[in-house]
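Q: Hi! First time doing this. I have a protein sequence and I read that you can turn it into a structure. Is that right? Here it is:
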Amino acid sequence: MKTALFVCVQNSGRSQMAEAFFNKLAGGKAQALSAGTQPANEVNPVVVEAMKGGWHRCQRQQTEGAYDGYGGKGSQNDYDGVRS
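A: Yes, that's right. Below is the predicted 3D structure, encoded as C-alpha cells:
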C-alpha cells in the first residue's frame, strides 16, 4: 500500500488534519501518517473539535516526532511521498 507522510513543526494541527483528510479520501487505497519536527505535547484541541464537526476525524489525539520511527536513522518505514 502506498504511504504518505505529512510533516509540520508541532504535528498538532495542519499535518494531523492532512492525515485525516488523506485517509478519508484515499478510501483504503493508500494511507497517510503525520509527524512533527518539534512535536507538541498534544494535538491542538481546536483542531480536534473542528475535525469532529465534519466527516473527517483526527485518528490520534497525540503527536508524533518526525525522527521517532518516521524515517529517521534505523527506521523501517518507506514512504512514497513526504509533504510539509
